[in-house]
Amino acid sequence: MDLWQLLLTLALAGSSDAFSGSEATAAILSRAPWSLQSVNPGLKTNSSKEPKFTKCRSPERETFSCHWTDEVHHGTKNLGPIQLFYTRRNTQEWTQEWKECPDYVSAGENSCYFNSSFTSIWIPYCIKLTSNGDTVDEKCFSVDEIVQPDPPIALNWTLLNVSLTGIHADIQVRWEAPRNADIQKGWMVLEYELQYKEVNETKWKMMDPILSTSVPVYSLKVDKEYEVRVRSKQRNSGNYGEFSEVLYVTLPQMSQFTCEEDFYFPWLLIIIFGIFGLTVMLFVFLFSKQQRKEN
Question: Where does the record place the Fibronectin type-III domain (predicted)?
Fold first, then answer.
């Protein structure tokens, strides 16, 4: 049955007036069973293998880079070199001049880097990937929309206090803004998110975003080790950057002196109140007995 279908397909391909050459064969094979399509797999298209933009990112609102996939060169298609072109709007209308990527090297493989000379914050950009003159992917954005800061640095912590029972402790976590983020002059206003968990846990506990570079973390268990990490984003923007390196917080068991003080102090107070209560009761008993004798 498959041989008959193959002969019929080849006959139709030879007599077709609507298509010519490989285009006719491809059109007919696309309607044929899978067993027939496998005869000429090179005619099948696979759009998922085409280069695609993966991310455009600006770490400090002064430069940005765009990255793309390059799986096509490992697939079945034979496309030419991938090139990136960009245009930006300097007036009310888009300029029709497309310029090629100024730097294919600085941001790594399959990327284009725009230094401060090519970066304008509020002017919209359009970029496109081309191969052999054909556009394979494109996107538009403003630099302010793609800001993702570098990770915060220099994380450290200090102990604030320990509970009377010696079971829990509070700490203060501090860090510094990324070095390339100009927060002193207000060019960037960063919002931070701290997450923490016990070392053997899988789910991170997330704290509310803050604008300061320090935050207290309460009710951590002593004799446990915790992991703490922080990430940041530009205020009023939804694009968080990468997390910082993990800060490890170890809370050792408190000393015996501290534990004895925590636990024995309430007992001492109870003993004092007990003695005072017994004294009052004895005084009342003696006073009542004295009153009976007088009567």
Answer: 151-254
Q: Looking at domain 52-72+79-145, does it have CATH number 3.10.250.10?
A: no
Q: Report how far apart, in Å, the C-alpha atoms of 134 and of each of 77, 81, 84, 125, 170 are.
A: 14, 11, 11, 19, 60
The pair of three-digit structure tokens given for residue 187, joined into one six-digit string = 């060019």
What distance in Å separates the CA atoms of residue 19 and residue 140, rounded to the nearest whole number? 37
Per-residue pLDDT of the chain (295 residues; tens, 9 = 90+): 444 454 445 444 444 443 333 333 333 333 333 333 333 333 233 355 789 999 999 999 999 999 999 865 555 455 678 999 999 876 555 556 899 999 999 999 999 999 999 999 888 999 999 998 899 999 999 999 999 999 999 999 999 999 998 899 999 999 999 999 998 888 899 999 999 999 999 999 999 999 999 999 999 999 899 999 999 999 987 789 999 999 999 988 765 444 444 444 567 778 888 888 888 888 787 877 776 766 6
Domains 52-72+79-145 and 153-250 share a fold: yes
153-250 maps to CATH 3.40.190.10: no
